[in-house]
Amino acid sequence: MIAHYELRCSSCNAPAQRHDLPCTTCGELLEFALQSDPPDADAARAYAATVARRRANDTPLDRSGIWRWRELLPQIPHASVVTLAEGNVPLYDMPELAEREGISALAFLHLGMNPTGSFKDLGMTVAISAARAEGATRAICASTGNTASSMAAYAARAGMEAFALVPRGKISGAKLAQMRDYGVRVVEVEGSFDDALAELTSRSSEGTAVVNSINPYRLEGQKCTAFAILEARSWRVPDWVVVPGGNLGNSSAIGKGFREARALGLIDRLPRLAVVQAEGAAPFVELYRSGRDLVPVVPRTIASAIAVGSPRSWRKARAELDASRGSAVAVSDDEIDAAKGRIGAAGIGCEPASAATLAGIARLRAEGTLTERDDVVAVLTGHVLKDSDASLRVADRRDVGA
Ligand SMILES: *Cc1c(COP(=O)(O)O)cnc(C)c1O
Ligand SMILES: [Zn+2]
Q1: For each of the chain's 402 residues, which pLDDT tens digit applies?
Q2: Ligand with the closest atom to the CA of 28
Q3: pTM score over 0.85
Q4: What separation in Å is there between the alpha carbon of 310 and the centre of ligand 1?
Q5: Residues in Cβ contact with 197 at an 8 Å cutoff, skipping those fewer than 6 apart
Q6: How far, in Å, from the CA of 131 to the mean position of ligand 2?
Q7: Ligand lying closest to the C-alpha of residue 24
Q8: HEC string of 237-304?
Q9: What is the architecture, at CATH level 2, of domain 91-116+218-401?
């Protein structure tokens, strides 16, 4: 199975001049475009078996759920790779919740079970490794908490300085504490995540790697979520994969992962991709359902990890939903809290943004997009300990039976 990647514009397809800037022709985001032979199921099966065997080895690359797939990632010298054994996460079968929602099967891929407690680690290992290979000495990002925590950990492992721009008063105490534990320098910005991201563009400089999801290396790591879902199901394709959407890098990456799995012959059809946003931060749901372009909003939701009003990857995410006959749906903060309560009561737990998936499944079932025959995987993006205020609020409401 032969695959290699060319860094190109995701919109106009122009070859990229530099990986750390948007397309110089049209200003859109870059991507690593797969160049491969036609699908070859036998070669793909043999490759999947090789990757599965690597689990048993004791080298850091083989112990990583990302670098096990290194033939499908941008080529980075192994000596530069910075890994924390990310990507080895459980897929939990949830038959009672499936029955309650009236669907045939439901499983949670819990990406909160990563080294820093969110899926950001899957992309950060690739972005920081690439930065180190190029001799960067500093990393910077705008963040609602999880990107900065992940960056801080990987940068510390790489011996790089790390700077986080966070919206003042809009991130959880646990996330702020975690990123500081790893030694990050925190800069508080007035406004929302979108203001922090705008501020970041003005601060980047030579020798500093920007590790937000506009960095195409991030998405290459995160696309391995698709491989993890398929591998954990013995390559049986689910009907739907449900993902919470903020800046929409992750939805884009997961869609790309499934498309590449099909292009290589690992699977022969795509699961449908559903993006769930919070009602107070749902510009993507609005544009996807109306067929118009992005209209930014001022984000307002308790699910801080998806409180993004002007998602940078909306075009990529729209393309993935189009390719997979997907859907987008918005849920209220009350629905998110109720879903978080059910996920906790099932012994799993997650942060509010992740619980939006289960709330979204209920909405999609009610409107008939999901049916009783559907086999659904939801991606839980962050750990329960990421937002203890939310846990106390939900538990208090459950205890009084509200
Ligand atoms: C970052 C994050 C999201 C949103 O991912 P995007 O790629 O910005 O759409 C959702 N949930 C959690 C827990 C996150 O940390
Ligand atoms: Zn372009």
Answers
A1: 778 999 999 999 999 988 888 899 999 999 999 998 899 999 999 999 999 999 999 999 999 999 999 999 999 999 999 999 999 999 999 999 999 999 999 999 999 999 999 999 999 999 999 999 999 999 999 999 999 999 999 999 999 999 999 999 999 999 999 999 999 999 999 999 999 999 987 776 788 999 999 999 999 999 999 999 999 999 999 999 999 999 999 999 999 999 999 999 999 999 999 999 999 999 999 999 999 999 999 999 999 999 999 999 999 999 999 999 999 999 999 999 999 999 999 999 999 999 999 999 999 999 999 999 999 999 999 999 999 999 999 999 888 765
A2: 2
A3: yes
A4: 14
A5: 142, 165, 212, 247, 312
A6: 23
A7: 2
A8: CCCEEEEECCCCHHHHHHHHHHHHHHHHCCCCCCCEEEEEEEHHHCHHHHHHHHCCCCCCCCCCCCCH
A9: 3-Layer(aba) Sandwich (3.40)
Q: Which atom of ligand 1 is nearest to the CA of 353?
A: 11
Packed helices 352-366 and 333-345: angle between N→C axes, nearest 10 degrees: 100
Residue closest via CA to ligand 1's atom 1 equals 305
Cα 144 to middle of ligand 1, angstroms: 9
SS3 label, residue 382: strand
